[in-house]
Amino acid sequence: MSPLQFIRQRPFALLGVVGLLWLLTPVALKRLARVSLFEFGAPADFAASYARDLQQYWSLRTRSTNELLQTARDLANLNASYETRIQENETLREEVRRLEEALHLPSNPEYRTEIARVVRRDFGTWSQRLVIRKGRNAGLPVGAPVIFSGGVVGRVAEVYAYTAAVDLVSSPTLRIAAVADGDSRPFSFEGGPNPPFTQARGSVEFVPLDVYASPEAPKRIVTAGLGGVFPAGIVIGYIQNLELDTGGLFKSGAVLLDPRLNELHEVAVLVPLNPEQQ
After folding, report:
1. b/e code 175-188 from CB counts within 10 Å (16+ = b)
2. Is 256 helix (H, G, I), strand (E, B) or coil?
3. Under DSSP, is residue 60 helix (H, G, I), strand (E, B) or coil?
4. pLDDT tens, position by position, 138-164
5. How many CB atoms lie within 10 A of CB 235?
6. Do 118 and 131 touch, CB atoms closer than 8 A?
7. Three-state SS for 122?
8. I want to staple 218 with a disulfide (CB 3.0 to 4.6 A). Which of 60, 206, 208, 238 is the partner?
9. How does pLDDT run across 188-208, given as a tens digit for each residue?
10. Alpha-carbon distance 112 to 90, whole Å?
């Protein structure tokens, strides 16, 4: 072999050696290296997140007095609306508790809500994740559901000291038992490959034959409450179309997810108070 050919093939040989060594490395050591790398990069992500918050703070300080007054009025109206909804929610909770006692039904698992800021977004074709600014320090467990005002965000996949990784509802790794709004028959929702810079989508299968949807009349789907992860009734998305599957016994189709998933700044993690009951 000539020296020139050796120089050309040397990078491939080194790459092959590194790949072989990685394959022979024990799984425990790989996981330790991955966790250590994530924890090592966490301070940089934290600093960038706090810098964005500080930048937003100073940008708000530059607004005029009229703009601030208008924002204050809007917030006052919003707070009044939220106070009314809180009162309605408490009334409904009391009614549910009364019916559970009258019918001797078990209570649903209760959660506490942990609000977390989004540190980083990892949006790829096959993996869609958020990194949030809370982890073991806030008592977040792996598998906890994550939601926002528009519905389901995803599920906590990994928990570190001060951060946690959340698999988005659009990720192919996430499957949820769902029902059509106003129906009680469960079917399966799954995320899928989503190209960057497009509205997130998913898919459903095993949908009953008498459920219909189209782009002109989309069908809203919500969590079924099965599986012990997501509470029932949280919005997932809207079915855009349904077609018969290969067996002809059920339908399957595409689901359009909330476009705000690509620009979230804060999310709510539902931490179960009694995880052993789930």
Report:
1. ebbbbbeebeebbb
2. strand
3. helix
4. 999 999 999 998 899 999 999 988 899
5. 17
6. yes
7. strand
8. 238
9. 999 888 777 778 889 999 999
10. 15
Please, what is the Cα angle at 12 between 10 and 16, to 5 degrees?
A: 115
What local confidence, expressed as pLDDT, does residue 144 receive? Answer: 93
Residues contacting 53, CB < 8 A, separation 6+: 117
Query: How many CA atoms within 13 Å lie on the side-chain side of 90?
Result: 5
β-partners of residue 222 are 179, 235
Yes or no: say if 161 and 45 are a contact pair by the CB < 8 Å rule: no
Q: How confident is the model over 222-238, as pLDDT tens digits?
A: 999 887 788 888 999 99
In the chain, the largest separation of any two C-alpha atoms, in whole Å, equals: 88
CATH 3.40.50.150 is the classification of domain 175-260: no
Count of residues making up the chain? 278
Give 88-121 pLDDT, tens digit per residue: 888 888 888 888 778 776 665 678 899 999 998 8
* Of 268, 238, 277, the residue nearest 116 (C-alpha): 268
Averaged pLDDT, 246-255: 88
Structure tokens at 267: 């999310």
Rounded distance between C-alpha atoms, residue 96 and residue 89, angstroms: 10
What whole-number distance in Å separates Cα of residue 84 and Cα of residue 212? 35
Residue 117 and residue 267: Cα distance in Å, rounded? Answer: 7
Q: Return d(Cα 35, Cα 39) in angstroms, integer.
A: 6
Tokens coding 95: 């009614």
Rounded to the nearest integer, the mean pLDDT of the chain is 82
In sequence order, the β-bridge partners of residue 241 are 254
165 has which bridge partners?
131, 158
